[in-house]
Amino acid sequence: MNKLPTQINKTIYSIVFLVIIPLFLWFWATHTEDLINLPLIQSTLIGWLLVIGGVILMAWAMFSLKKYGKGLPMNAYPPPRFVTNGPYKIFRHPIYWGFSMILIGYFIITNSSSGLWLVTPIAILAMIALVMGYEDIDLKKRFPNESIKTILDLPTKIEEPASIRARLISLFWVIASLLLSNLIIVKLVGSTAALLGKPLVLQFPVKNPYLLLLTVLFILAIPFIIKRMDHIFNWVITSLIAIGISTFIALLCPAVGAQYLAGKDAFVYMVPIFLVLLSIRSIFKHSKGLGILFSLIGVSLMIIQLAFSNSAELHLISSIIIFLLAAYYFYIWLFLKNASEKIANSWKEWVFGKVRVINHGFYVGFGSFLGILLAGILVGDAYAWAILMFAFVVVIFSALWAQVIEGSEKLKRPFGYYGALVGIIFASIAVWIMGFNVWVIIGVISVVMPWVQGIGRFRCLVNGCCHGSKVAHPDIGIRYFHNRSRVCGISHLKGELLHPTPLYAMIWLFLVGFVLLFLWQHDFSPSFIFGLYLILTGIGRFVEEAYRGEVQTPIFNGLRLYQWTAILSVLLGIIMTLIHVNVVVVASTFGWMTLVSAIIGGLFTAFAMGVDFPQSNARFSRLV
After folding, report:
1. What is the pLDDT of residue 409?
2. Nearest in space to 25 (alpha carbons), one of 570, 595, 579, 605
3. Are 21 and 126 in contact (CB under 8 A)?
């Protein structure tokens, strides 16, 4: 009896993912082409090879799912059997790899700058979010006794001798990531002048570009010198982290981060110094004697690299910073995690008669103050009061939204992020009535909002809202013990190891803020900036929600409520990027009005989210 409706639903699902979404991505690229003025990859041959390869890979993966899994790639109707055959034996998620290849190839063939540099990266991020925020979790639930192991997986962190395959695979990931990073940086920002400095001048000639191959050979030798699997694992992970950080900095601030590249013709040879430093560190873990020898070789190679760099000073300084961040990533994570746990158990309150002041309000108050201050600095005193009005309305609507979704006898005054997004509509009307350019305000608010939200997540830690679900690993989870925390009072998870989801959000929002600031500084339209804000925060929220554990959040069709709203946020963001709004040049005249409005906004937010009336039972009276 249920076969016909199920078959209809599967058909609709197939049409959505095989027809509607690709057409929508094409439409998005076509209608944002004039906004993305970035270089193209002029190679029809490469484009066709990618498209054909992607089609073959997707078809092979779908065939394998049908043959071995007895199903098709539908998250709503997943295959009943676990598949490790075909392309699934080689690497994870081959369908998404294939689709990414098709997108890149198609947009190269059609000379679409927007498709290549906007639509494709967002689509890839969305696929990563779907994997992290749903598919991996769902697979573990449906196949708890199965584990994913593929040929191209990174080596495991075990104290055993490394196999030849593990060495080759490790080398593949490092070299492939470096070449891709160099290609992207050279293509987009490689000719940017250095902020300061110049190439290192040596007393002997080193201008033969083939000298750079010596550093490439140095990197190629590393996985064959290191003997143990855990040491190779550490080399690969730290190298990939470093390349990721370097790429992010180079794209957003090329005058600082892209100066290790000698020129467009030599990008294949260029190995940033931080990779040499990470390699030397890994060899030292294996053998101090070899470490000293390779340090001497590495220093010589680094001198050659500095002679070819656009700025020796910036290359060296940025490489040392990136090296430290990558080499000690685990200790940095532990510091952040432990600090988060300490803050999560730092609840303090002061009662003055019928009024209670809670310490977590100070965090959101400071976040609001800083956000209004930064926004005022970007657009000047003329918009100070409009930004303040915007903040007022957004806070009010975040309270109204949460009251509908989460309000109860225990939660008299909750706040919800998506209520703030709804409040943007009414805040826009208010500032329009006041006579201000609404788009300017929406644009600048979008720039600072990720950092405001990130600081606000400190309140989430103290309050216990937005808390994570259970996790087994002590290096990941944090514990809540304070009885005032929602974790203890509502979710009844006192002392349990939980995902530090507020910390996850802080890290993502911190990075998103820099992306949006870059767009603002390069005169992208406010509607485009707002759209990217909705897209990027929506993608992050989808993943974060998958690891949250509030008992009051409803679940629909396998996804938490706020995962559905995150998807809606992404779709609305795409629509916003399609709205063409002229860029308005504003004078950044910081003055007393910006400072006063920031102070007022900070105090208002601190009161709304940190001051309540514990003896009252009226709606909006109590925070706990």
Report:
1. 60
2. 570
3. no
Torsion, Cα 501 502 503 506, to 10 degrees, reads 130
Other beta carbons within 10 angstroms of residue 540's beta carbon come to: 24
Domain ranges of the chain: 3-142, 164-327, 337-346+354-612
Sign for the pseudo-dihedral over CA of 254, 257, 259, 263: negative
- State residue 72's pLDDT score: 80
Question: What's the CA gap between 96 and 102, in Å, rounded?
Answer: 10
Q: Which amino acid is at 270?
A: M
Burial class (CB in 10 A: 0-12, 13-18, 19+), 473: exposed
DSSP string, 65-96: HHHHSSS-S-SSS--SS---SGGGGTSS-HHH
530-564 per-position pLDDT tens digit:
999 999 999 999 999 999 998 878 888 889 999 99
CB 552 within 8 A of CB 406: yes
> What DSSP element (H or E) covers 233?
helix 229-252
3-class secondary-structure state, position 324: helix
Is the pLDDT at 350 greater than 70? The verdict is: yes
Residue 304 host element (H or E): helix 288-308
Which residue, chain included where needed, has tokens 């570009």? 209
Tell me the C-alpha distance between 559 and 557, whole Å.
6
**Do residues 523 and 586 lie in contact, with contact meaning Cβ atoms separated by under 8 Å?**
no
pLDDT score at 262? 66
Helix (H, G, I), strand (E, B) or coil at 623: coil
Rounded to whole angstroms, how far apart are CA atoms 485 and 624? 9
* Coil vs helix vs strand at 356: strand
Q: What is the pLDDT of residue 201?
A: 72
**Cα dist from 612 to 41, 359, 462, whole Å:** 58, 12, 16
Judge whether 123 and 25 are in contact, CB under 8 Å.
Answer: yes
Q: Could you write out the DSSP letters of every residue in 589-605?
A: ---HHHHHHHHHHHHHH
